[in-house]
Amino acid sequence: MGLKPVKVGICGLGTVGGGTFNVLKRNESEITRRAGRVIRVEQIGARRPNPNCETNGVQITDDIFAVAKNPEVDIVVELIGGYETALELVLTAIEHGKHVVTANKALIAEHGNEIFEAAQRKNVMVAFEASVAGGIPIIKAIREGLAANSINWLAGIINGTGNFILTEMRDKGRAFGDVLKEAQELGYAEADPTFDVEGIDAAHKLTILASLAYGVPLQFNKAYTEGISEITTEDVNYAEELGYRIKHLGVSRRTEDGIELRVHPTLIPEKRLIANVDGVMNAVLVDADAVGPTLYYGAGAGSEPTASAVIADLVDVVRAMTADRDNRVPHLAFHPSHMSDLPILPMEEIRTAYYLRLNAIDHPGVLAEVTSILSAQQISIDSILQKGTGEELVPIIILTHEVQEKQMNQAIKQIEALEDIQGAVTRIRVEQLDAN
C-alpha cells in the first residue's frame, strides 16, 4: 500500500472507545484491505486508562482538545458522550480541518444542523452511523441502500433498556419498577434512567432517522415522547389476549400534511417480526415505495457492536477523504441545498388506533354511555373485552380503529367525567405496521 497511513485520534476510552481501539487492532489487516490504507491510532484522549485495552506505544493525554488540535491527526473519533464538551470538541476538530466520527446521538439530534454546516464550510465529513441502533448499519441503509425510494414510514425499537424492561414484564409477569431496578443492577440502565424509560434517547435516534428518510432538518424539539413507566402487567396481558405485544416504539411517518415524529408505548400485532424483538436487541422497520418493507435487527449497544459501526465510518471517511465535498454522500442523505420544509406534525394531528382501559362501576348501561361518547367523536370500535371480576369495579378494554388524536383526547376527557368511570383512562396507541 503506497499511501501513507491515516492517523486517528480517539477521544473517550470507555465502553465504545475501548471496543473501537480493540477491534481496530484485532482486524487491522482486514480493515486495511477494505480501506486501501492503514488506519492507525495516533493519539488517545482519555481521563483514565481502560484495563481492557493494550495501549502500549500509543500517545495518551487527558486533554481531549489536544487531540482535536494535533496536526498529525486526520480523523477525530468523539466517544465521550454528553452535550457541551462534545459539541466544543467536535467544532474544534472541524475548525482544525479534521474529519469527525461520532457515536453521540444527543449531539447529532440537538446540534447536528450547526455541526454539518461547519463541516461543509471546512470541506470535512462528520460520520455518525454508531449514533443510532449501535452495530446495525441503519443510517447507511437509509442514506445509501434505499436512495432510490420514497420512504413512507419507519418504526423502531431503538432503546435496549426499555425493550429489556417490557420483555421481562411480558415473559415473567413482573412489575415495571421491579424490572427497572434489575436493569440498573445489570448495568443496562443508568442510575438516572429518565433518558431511556421516558423515550428521550429513542427520540434522539428517531429524529436522526426521520431526517435521513425525508430530507428534513433535524428537529428534536418537535418530537413527541411518552415513557413506559405507566405500563402495567394487566396491560401487557390484555394486549396479549387481543393478539398484540407492547413495545416502546419510535414512529415517523410522512403524510401530505407533515411528518409524524413520536416515541411512545405501542401495541403491535404479535405476528409482526418486530413484535418479537426482545431483550436489549434493537430493530428498525422501514417501509419504502419501491422495495416495500425492510427490517434491520441487531445489537443496539455494547462495546464491540457499536465499535463495528464506528470503524465502518472510519473506513468510509478514509475512502472519501480525497473526494471533493460535492462528490461525497450528504450528511443527511439529501443534498443540503435540496432539504424539504415539510413540517413536523403536532401530536393532536396524528392519526392512529388506540387501546383504552377503563375501570367502570358494574352498573348496567355504563358501556353504552362509553360507546355513545366514542361514536359522537366518530371513533369506531374494533373490539371490546369486558372482564367480569365479581368486584365492584370492572376493567373494560376497547380497541378502536384509526382516528385523529385530537378526537381521542376529547373522548377520553368525556369518558373520565362519567360518574361510573373511576380514575384515569389508560391510553396506548396501536400500530398495525403493515405495508400497503
Structure description:
There is one protein chain. The chain has helices at 15-26, 28-35, 64-69, 84-95, 105-122, 138-145, 160-172, 176-185, 194-197, 200-214, 233-241, 303-320, 366-376, 405-416; strands at 6-11, 39-45, 59-61, 75-78, 99-102, 126-127, 151-157, 224-225, 244-254, 259-269, 281-288, 292-299, 351-361, 381-386, 393-400, 403-404, 421-430. Helix content is 36%, strand content 25%. The protein is of the alpha/beta class and 436 residues long. It folds into 3 domains: 6-135 and 303-338, NAD(P)-binding Rossmann-like Domain (Rossmann fold, 3-Layer(aba) Sandwich); 147-298, Dihydrodipicolinate Reductase, domain 2 (2-Layer Sandwich); 348-430, ACT domain (Alpha-Beta Plaits), CATH 3.30.70.260. The radius of gyration is 24 Å and the shape is elongated. Strands 7, 8, 9, 10, 11, 12, 13, 14, 15, 16 and 17 form an 11-stranded mixed β-sheet that branches. Strands 3-2-1-4-5-6 form a 6-stranded parallel β-sheet, sandwiched between helices.
Quickly list its features.
single chain, 436 residues, alpha/beta, Rossmann fold, Dihydrodipicolinate Reductase, domain 2, Alpha-Beta Plaits, eleven-stranded mixed sheet, six-stranded parallel sheet, 25% strand
